[in-house]
Amino acid sequence: MTEVVDLPRWAVVSDKRRAHIARVTALLGDWSEAMSLTSAEREEWHDAGRYHDALRDAPEAVLRELAIGFPVADANVLHGPAAEGRLRQEGEHRTGVLDAVRWHTIGHKGWTRTGKALFMADFLEPGRAFAKAERGYLARQVPYDFDGTFRQVVRARLEWTLREGKPLFLETVELWNSVR
Question: For residues 91 and 154, what is the distance between their CA atoms, to the nearest angstrom?
């Protein structure tokens, strides 16, 4: 059973999105335990998972208002920078959490391990219907080969993006060039 995740009071999410957030957070928790992370890093991973889609179902006008300075205009990727903007307003100061949430949909070459973990968990969480066996295998590898699995996930997400005919963002290309 998936854990219940305590979302911030300003979150705007459907029940389906809430379940996704819970699965992402649970996966991050499993990895952080298996990797024996410090309590501070474990908390950072948990909070990044908890916040990453907190505004996923918010109106576009709200997303645009909060996503100040984000270089991408595509409304489908504004929920991360909007949540990061709201977190800053609430006093969040941990750069690892803020950067992870801001860039989780398109990637960022300057991430700490928190951003990389969130990027992987968001893609590998078991509730997604596609490539279940392959994604499950990658999810099990994270604690044993974090960087190698991250590289494979970046590749898989790029391939999926191209296959689906979605746009490639400069930040995604820069991320790929930094890990290959």
Answer: 31
> In angstroms, rounded to a whole number, what is the distance separating the alpha carbons of residues 165 and 58?
25
Distance CA 14, CA 91 (A): 25
Dihedral over Cα of 135, 138, 142, 143: its sign: positive
44 domain-assigned: yes
Distances (CA, A) of 38 to 25, 103, 146, 179: 17, 23, 16, 25
The answer to whether position 68 is within a domain reads yes
Q: What is the tally of structural domains in the chain? A: 1
Say if pTM beats, i.e. exceeds, 0.85: yes
Is residue 4 situated within a structural domain? no
Structure tokens at 42: 């474990």
- DSSP category for residue 86: H
pLDDT digit string (tens) for 111-133?
A: 999 999 999 999 999 999 888 99
Let me know if residue 70 belongs to a domain: yes
How confident is the model over 76-97, as a mean pLDDT?
A: 97
Task: Report the pLDDT value the prediction gives residue 7, as an integer from 0 to 100.
Answer: 95
Q: Note down the domain range covering 90.
A: 15-179
Measured CA to CA, the distance from residue 123 to residue 104 in angstroms comes to: 10
